[in-house]
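Sample pair:
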Amino acid sequence: MSPPTTTIDVVIDAAGFALPGELTLPPDARAVVVFAHGSGSSRHSPRNRQVAAALNRAGLGTLLFDLLTPAEEQNRAHVFDIPTLSTRLTDTTTWLHTRTPTLDLAYFGASTGAAAALTSASRPDSPVYAVVSRGGRPDLANSLPAVRAPTLLIVGGDDTQVLALNREAQAQLRCENRLEVVEGATHLFEEPGALEEVATLATTWLTAHLPPN
């Protein structure tokens, strides 16, 4: 019998801020996917947790954590402060890499968290091998042409404004990329089967782009 999947509560030191998180590692995991949640959300986001569970079943580790402190979340301006969010994500990535040095790293960003993920991935020293954006705002990211990691943009077909913004952002990407439209889905993918499709698309992308052993 293989060892069980393990989940531990962690506290991440990001630029002097203590950010709570949840690290899940299936047995024989080769990578960890770091989740960057969107505005008004947290590590407890049911949508991100559903996607994370699917990734865990596929053998990928996940880290869900809070990008902001409870006090910061009270100020709406903070959730759109992409430079701060991306710095926190970059620091978290460094923190995680020191603890799981043998595992590859990837990002899954939702809404404004996708902008933070792509901004972090555009850094010259970024170690991530792939990025997935769900209902993201990649148009808010800095330096999209500098992103090197293969990037998947997932948008609901009925989320027309965000879909248009994703098409504009995709045109700036120079890395391998794809835009997948989930027909009939709105911004939160609350329609029956929509989030399951997101999970399948993300799992396929993140496993297909795993670096060789």
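Residues 82-99 form the longest helix (18 residues).
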